[in-house]
């Protein structure tokens, strides 16, 4: 629904007015006076939502979202008594038998993912985080996860492409007035949670529908650029949103191609990721070729037309700050260092990351900050990769900003405006499941995540899962035989992305105690965002 006009000072000192619109179907924020390029059908509650709160999204679900989303954060912090108390509270009070319409994507990553993570922690025979066992535990969290997933399955029915509806009613299935448009990230980022559930239960249904959606989206990529758009019609397969980028509407699709391979070992997931990463480098990346040497502008990933690769706008959004962390996972550490420095410079300027930042105007296009974790996540992963104390200073800077600008009487509040530092009476559940967890792990060098010898992976909601053989051994062979649009036939033998500019080995030991980015390049980025 259209929001109130938000004044912003333009480069000439005059106030410019933009109308902001949040698409409740795909999560994208649209700026401008004309929505004909992306129509938003009237919603039942339209007119009742405060127009100033354009960034409110319908994710709550009436099923104790924050309690569930924070379960494994308690475990990672070693607080066994509170973890056990919270798990018992979930078992005793949470039910998904509700007349409640929820987003399939949000319910999957926030609720299903957390239930599975907590179940894995409880049943882990090694108990790396301390005694997190529950007396007389009878797989109740796994049963709850199964019940929720079954209630989400109708979203995958009656779509001609296999791409799911964006919303489903937990009691009644897909609402009769449901929209046929969804975003790439929302439809294509279900495979990790659904795959874990399938492999724990020995039931291929959930992984099958999630993998079918991924392959359907992959088959719709541009023949010219290999890129995907950000909003698609689930019945026709036509791209409604032709923007290709790394932020809202696209981000976790790429993340889960790689993480699905890490967890399940399915080579086709890595092959798709390699191809996608190469196309991103070819068409989205701007600036000099190397991060820490040479002449030219700092590397930046922009939003382009999926068919032509031409620039569509001059903004990036805060969700893109996850990408340096993803680059760390494939060993492209040098490029990650440069991109991370850009987002950190924006943080230094405002003490937060605006939801959308116009790098040409050097000003926020959409000024709110809902306590997002992506910059913290990339900071944590870069520190783990380099052990450079610089990233501890970044984490401290972020922590102090959160304490100074967002702390409230009963928690931490969304910033309504990063310049004015006005607050909203809202704390997203991902603040506890991700932002706090990554900050805690950044400073806790002795945490079992780092010292136990176990291998762990974080979901896109920051839920921790162990990487072990039980998830690599499925009870079924090739669950989608003969599917068209599948990845190339070549079989990579190592976790390595194609066409990346560098790797971990290019960060020498002597650089651990120097600035990760040379000082002249740091100043260049500071000038780019208006810090100097």
TrEMBL record:
Task: Give residues annotated as binding Ca(2+).
Answer: 460
GO CC field: endoplasmic reticulum membrane; endoplasmic reticulum quality control compartment
E.C. code: 3.2.1.-
Protein topology in the membrane: Single-pass type II membrane protein
Q: Does the keyword Glycoprotein apply?
A: yes
Keywords of the record, alphabetical order, are: Calcium, Endoplasmic reticulum, Glycoprotein, Glycosidase, Hydrolase, Membrane, Metal-binding, Signal-anchor, Transmembrane, Transmembrane helix, Unfolded protein response
Origin, by domain of life?
Answer: Eukaryota
Do you know which SUPFAM superfamilies this protein is assigned to? Seven-hairpin glycosidases (SSF48225)
List required co-factors. Ca(2+)
KW ATP-binding (keyword) present: no
Subcellular location(s): the record lists:
Endoplasmic reticulum membrane
GO terms for molecular function, please?
calcium ion binding; mannosyl-oligosaccharide 1,2-alpha-mannosidase activity
Q: Name one GO biological process term.
A: carbohydrate metabolic process
- What residues form the catalytic site here? 106 (proton donor), 251, 355 (proton donor), 374
The job of this chain, per UniProt, is described as:
Extracts misfolded glycoproteins, but not glycoproteins undergoing productive folding, from the calnexin cycle. It is directly involved in endoplasmic reticulum-associated degradation (ERAD) and targets misfolded glycoproteins for degradation in an N-glycan-independent manner, probably by forming a complex with SEL1L. It has low mannosidase activity, catalyzing mannose trimming from Man8GlcNAc2 to Man7GlcNAc2.
To which protein family does this belong?
Belongs to the glycosyl hydrolase 47 family.
Protein name per UniProt: alpha-1,2-Mannosidase
Please tell me the species this chain comes from.
Answer: Cyanistes caeruleus (Eurasian blue tit)
